């Protein structure tokens, strides 16, 4: 650590009468002096600039640009949310000198006059990326990933992957040949196979880092081990010239559909004593196997109740459309039997074309939803069957929190995510017990990672409970799994999180961003709500799941 410049006061609290003293007493080094948040003394230290801030200043000005605060980590907001958008834009300007995030840790001193509580003065000081005892929030890892001095270019592992990938040196002085990098190949099982241990290392080794000067991009590579395709996750970890870990990154070797089909083909299912049946009455549709039965409401197409043996599984009241509208059409829906199970095809108008439910003879429930494949929505909606700005998009169900004691899942984790704060989470198998942590407020029982919220890139998840555990598998990539609704901090001035979808458990193709002291519309492109245009001939969006209630 070293002093690189002098700050006279803070946020408008400077004393201009003392300005000459800095130069008078720093005659040897003559370090620059700033008035934080002001455009002063050849430095623009603007606080909380918007993504597009800069007319006649950053964009075409001549002053060094260095916002002395530009991200704010109040409660679970900001911190690393959308950080890279700002950073990449600012790095296009040679006069950009860096920026500051408010703040390192929650300012919650122990109050001897209040029985020893940790007191952040409600919303005035829970601004840290770590807690008062240095507990690490999701923002900590998001910032670590986005400010890592080694940045990997986007990488998708395909059948053509040969162990080489691009990376950029964002150090100021260090050549990457003086750093080192390792790789690991992890194998991840599924509950279907009775193997849910954390990823098993089946191969590991060194990555060759070439000579890459600061600011340059080059190619790193490693020799693919023979067992590479047998693995599920590639983990890369970089170390600095002193041997300290900088950051780690993970990539799926098999996408969700490939992973599911590969593992299912290797699973031996106990033959069912009888075939599954589909039955329809005036008010209900039932899919029934020897182990599991699902009853749908004939008027709405929604799950009414599920039974595993004689035990009721309280997963119901769905699918509910999120971010879109769909109208169930009972006259177009039908049931039928097939050699491997019973089928209920629920037809819709609006955002959904159909949702096909298939209960296999062994008791596994498949859901295949086709969404947004018709420009007209099948008629009757005047094309207004989805939100113009999409914050959440998918399907939701109800499931009582009191039934849940924990969750084990494969996907990105272990922290929850927001649309603009996915960096810092990694692929793997994770577990956490149920908790009701309120970020930046539950100081006496601050359990991280938080249990409730959005989880990225679901492969499978087991919701644990004393009597009603069940597992859901995603059969398409990019599914967000929303688990319950986090509580808002009691000390807030206004709500800190965007509205969560209806219901308790949601499977989504898009989720909202979290703000960072500024409205979402003033943040970068990866924080903005999505939008969709449907064209004739589109195959539509697919949301394919498989539930194991056995």
Which stretches of 5+ consecutive residues score pLDDT under 50? none
Structural class: mainly beta
Helix count from the secondary structure assignment: 4
- End-to-end separation: 58 Å
Shape: globular
The largest pleated sheet is described as:
10 strands, antiparallel
Strand content: 25-35%
Instruction: Report the average pLDDT across residues.
Output: 95
Number of strands: 36
Share of helix among residues?
under 10%
* Radius of gyration over all CA atoms, rounded: 27 Å
What features would you describe in this structure?
- The chain is mainly beta and 550 residues long.
- Helix content is 6%, strand content 33%.
- The protein is built from 4 helices and 36 strands.
- The protein has helices at residues 19-25, 83-90, 138-146, 256-265, and strands at 5-7, 32-34, 39-40, 43-44, 64-65, 71-72, 101-102, 110-111, 117-118, 150-152, 164-169, 180-187, 200-207, 217-221, 233-239, 245-252, 277-280, 284-288, 292-297, 303-308, 311-313, 316-322, 326-328, 334-338, 341-350, 352-360, 364-371, 393-398, 406-413, 426-433, 453-455, 460-464, 470-474, 480-483, 505-510, 541-548.
- Strands 23, 24, 25, 26, 27, 29, 30, 32, 33 and 36 form a 10-stranded antiparallel sheet that branches.
- Helix 2 (83-90) links the parallel strand 6 (71-72) and strand 7.
- The mean pLDDT is 95.
């Amino acid at each position: 650590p070293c002093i690189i410049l002098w700050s006279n006061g803070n946020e408008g609290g400077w004393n201009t009468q003392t300005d000459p003293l800095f130069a008078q007493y720093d005659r040897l080094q003559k370090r620059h002096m700033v008035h934080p948040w002001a455009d002063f003394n050849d430095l623009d230290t603007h606080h909380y600039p918007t993504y597009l801030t800069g007319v006649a200043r950053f964009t075409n000005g001549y002053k060094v640009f260095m916002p002395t605060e530009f991200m704010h980590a109040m409660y679970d907001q900001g911190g690393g949310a959308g950080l890279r958008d700002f950073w990449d834009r600012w790095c296009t300007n040679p006069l950009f000198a860096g920026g500051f995030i408010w703040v390192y840790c929650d300012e919650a001193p122990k109050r001897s006059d209040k029985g020893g509580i940790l007191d952040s003065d409600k919303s005035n000081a829970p601004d840290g990326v770590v807690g008062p005892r240095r507990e690490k929030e999701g923002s900590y890892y998001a910032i670590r990933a986005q400010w890592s001095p080694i940045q990997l270019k986007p990488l998708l592992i395909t059948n053509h992957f040969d162990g080489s990938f691009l990376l950029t040196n964002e150090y100021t002085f260090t050549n990457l040949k003086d750093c080192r990098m390792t790789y690991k190949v992890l194998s991840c099982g599924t509950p279907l196979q009775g193997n849910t241990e954390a990823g098993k290392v089946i191969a590991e080794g060194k990555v060759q880092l070439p000579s890459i000067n600061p600011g340059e991009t080059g190619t790193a590579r490693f020799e693919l081990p023979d067992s590479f395709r047998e693995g599920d996750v590639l983990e890369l970890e970089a170390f600095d010239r002193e041997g300290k870990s900088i950051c780690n990154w993970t990539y799926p070797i098999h996408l969700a559909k490939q992973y599911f089909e590969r593992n299912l083909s290797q699973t031996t299912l106990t033959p069912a004593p009888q075939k599954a049946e589909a039955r329809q009455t005036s008010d209900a549709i039932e899919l029934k196997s020897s182990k599991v039965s699902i009853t749908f409401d004939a008027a709405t197409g929604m799950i009414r109740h599920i039974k595993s043996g004689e035990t009721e599984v309280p997963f119901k009241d769905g699918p509910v459309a999120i971010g879109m509208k769909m109208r169930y059409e009972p006259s177009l829906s039908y049931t039928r039997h097939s050699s491997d199970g019973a089928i209920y095809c629920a037809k819709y108008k609006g955002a959904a074309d159909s949702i096909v439910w298939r209960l296999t003879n062994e008791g596994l429930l498949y859901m295949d939803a086709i969404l947004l494949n018709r420009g007209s929505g099948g008629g009757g909606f005047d094309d207004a069957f989805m939100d113009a700005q999409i914050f959440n998009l998918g399907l939701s169900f109800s499931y009582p929190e009191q039934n849940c004691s924990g969750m084990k899942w494969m996907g990105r984790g272990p922290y929850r995510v927001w649309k603009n704060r996915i960096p810092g989470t990694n692929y793997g198998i994770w577990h956490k017990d149920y908790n009701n942590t309120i970020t930046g407020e539950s100081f006496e029982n601050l359990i991280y990672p938080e249990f409730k919220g959005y989880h990225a890139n679901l492969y499978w998840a087991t919701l644990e409970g004393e009597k009603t555990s069940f597992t859901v598998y995603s059969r398409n990539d990019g599914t967000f799994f929303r688990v319950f609704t986090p509580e808002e901090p009691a000390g807030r001035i206004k709500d800190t999180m965007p509205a969560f979808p209806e219901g308790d458990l949601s499977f989504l193709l898009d989720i909202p961003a979290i703000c960072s002291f500024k409205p979402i519309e003033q943040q970068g492109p990866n924080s903005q709500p999505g939008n969709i245009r449907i064209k004739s001939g589109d195959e539509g969006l697919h949301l394919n799941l498989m539930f194991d209630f056995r």
